[in-house]
Design brief:
alpha+beta, Jelly Rolls, 4 helices, binds 4-(methylsulfanyl)-2-oxobutanoic acid, binds nickel (II) ion, Acireductone dioxygenase, dioxygenase, ARD_euk, nucleus
């Protein structure tokens, strides 16, 4: 299963775990309530995995590419990492599948608290359109991830505040009906 926890308020290195003391875990069920969904897959066979194929077909994830995030492998690494860690939303779901390494996705819960989701090899996650979130590597500084998308990908991120978007209002509304 996936591990998630409420974050502390410390402004130290974003790559550190930032757990509260004592740790305050967040369950998969709580993540589902804010529209975050999760699968565990076998990343060793991602090129021919029928389970991944099925998810892609069922959910219409026609597009995919693979991004390697590491100082030596990603052009403009520092800028991109900084950008990924700005609190933002997208007009579409963000779907990521970790093939190697590790990373953190931080999402805001219904009370605007940060939840940190620890992603490791084999974790596939979907963040709903309109949720405020951000991304960082951990201290190992390396991840290889598959990016999935319904149709032609749109990577545009809107930094907070972006409350005027209809998709944001739709998302906020959806939190009330769960
Ligand atoms: C995003 O929009 O938050 C990202 O694309 C994060 C990096 S992809 C592993
Ligand atoms: Ni994003």
């Amino acid at each position: 299963v996936i591990e998630a926890w409420f974050m502390d308020e410390s402004s130290s290195d974003q790559r550190l775990p930032h757990r509260l003391e004592p740790n305050q875990p967040v369950s998969l069920q709580e993540l589902q309530k804010i529209g975050v969904f999760y699968w565990k897959l076998n990343a060793d066979i991602y090129e021919s995995d029928p389970e991944l194929q099925k998810i892609r077909e069922d959910r219409g994830y026609s597009y995919m590419d693979i991004i390697t995030i590491h100082p030596d492998k990603l052009p403009n690494y520092e800028d991109k990492l900084k950008m990924f860690y700005e609190e933002h939303l997208h007009l579409d779901d963000e779907i990521r599948y970790i093939l190697e390494g590790r990373a953190y996705f931080d999402v805001r819960d219904q009370n605007d608290r940060w939840i940190r989701i620890a992603m490791t090899k084999g974790d596939l996650i979907t963040l709903p359109a309109g949720i405020y979130h951000r991304f960082t590597l951990d201290e190992t500084n390396y991840t290889k991830a598959m990016r999935l998308f319904v149709g032609e990908p749109v990577w545009k991120a809107y930094n907070r505040p972006a409350d005027e978007f209809e998709i944001r209002q739709k998302y906020v509304q959806s939190l009330k009906c769960r």
